[in-house]
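Q: Hi! First time doing this. I have a protein sequence and I read that you can turn it into a structure. Is that right? Here it is:
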Amino acid sequence: MKGKLFTVVLVCMMFGGGCKPAEEPASTAQSSSLSDSAKNKAYDIHEGFIKAERTFGTELFQYMSAQDGLKDNLLISPYSLQQMLMMTANGAAGDTLKEMKAALYLSDIHDSAINESSFGLMKRFESLTEGDLMTANAVWTRLETEPDFKQTIKQYFFGSVFKMDDNIKTAKNSISQWAAGQTKGRIDDIADHLSPKAVLVLINAVYFQAKWALPFDPNVSAEEHFFLPDGSAKKLLMMKQTARLAYLENDLFQAVKLPYEDQQLSFTLFLPKKTPASFMSLFTNQNIKAWDREFQPKTVKLSMPRFTLKGRYNVKYALRDMGLISVFSDADFSRMFTEGRGVSIDDVNHHTFIKVNESGTEAAAASSAEIVEAGLAPDVTLTANRPFFFAITDEQTTSLLFLGFVANPHE
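A: Yes, that's right. Below is the predicted 3D structure, encoded as C-alpha cells:
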C-alpha cells in the first residue's frame, strides 16, 4: 500500500538593513508515563527542549485558531517552525538572541545544549525501525558568513552552505531544485518569490514516510454526512475500521491514537463533544501531556473522513504577539555575517499541506522568514463527522510534528 509522506520545508530569507551594529497503541499509555529525560537520554536531548517546542507550538496554534475563529482548516508544524527559528537564532546576539530564546521557551537552556538537542532529535528520527523521518538543512548566502555560524549549521544541523548566485532567476532555480530533491518533488517552488534584495536564505526540509500499523480497508469506506461549523452538512467518503486502539473519553472529547508501523509515531484524533472553541482553550501542552497518560486500550469502531488540507499563513504578527518584537525592527544578527550589517526580519510565512486516506498520509509545509536591509465487537464508537483536531507525534521524544484542525474536509 502507498505509504505516508510528510514534507516540511522552512525558509529564512536574509536581506541587508535596519539592525544594531555588530556586538504501540496499548503500550502508548505506558511509554507516555516515562519521563521526557528518560526517553530522550539516549539522544542527548535536554529535558526542557521538547517541552519548549510543544509549548511554543500549542500557543502558536491557539493564537492562529483564535484569529480565524475556527471557521476554517488549520495546519502547522511546531517542530519545523522551531528548527527554522533556532537556526536563525544562531546568528543572533544580545537582546535579539534573548528575545528569540524567550519566545521559543528556551531561555533556561544553554545555547550549546539547544544545538545538541536539535542534533539529537535529528539522530532520533534517523533511528526509526519502520519508515523514514529525515531532516536536511542548507544556507545560500551572497555575503561572507561568520566561521562560527557556518560551523554550527554544519555540525549541529547537518547543513550545507552554498554561495547564492547574483542572478535572481538562477538563485531561485538552485534553491527550489535543492528543496525538491530533499522532498521528493513535493515542494518545488519554495524560492519562487525570493526577493532580489535577499542576501541569505536558510532552508530546513523534513521528509517523513511511514505506513499505518492498521491500514483502513478502502472497500468498506462509505459516503456519509460530515457536519460543518456553520451547521450545514456535506457528503464525503468516511474510512472505517474496528480495531484495538489507545482510546480516551471524558466530558470534553473522545480521542483515539492511530499508530504508524513504527509504534512510536502516532496520529491522535480529538473529537470535541461541545464546540471546537471550548476545546481549543484547553489544547495546551500541559493538558495534552496529562491526557496522554490516560489513554487505555479499547476496541474502537472508528469512522473518519479522508481529507486534504492546504494552508497559507502569515505568522509574523502571531510571533510578534508571542514576544518576537525586535527581530522585526531593530534586530542584532551580528553573529551571522563577518561584516557588521543592519538586518531585520520583514515577514514570516508558513505554507502547509496534508492528505489522509485509507493507506496513509501525505503532508508538506513551507515556512519563510524574509530579512531586509534597512472485525471486533466494539467497546466504543468514534464517528468524526464534525470538526476535529489532530496531532502527529513522535511518541518517544513527544515532539509535535504536526497540529491540525479539520473544519471542512476536502478531497
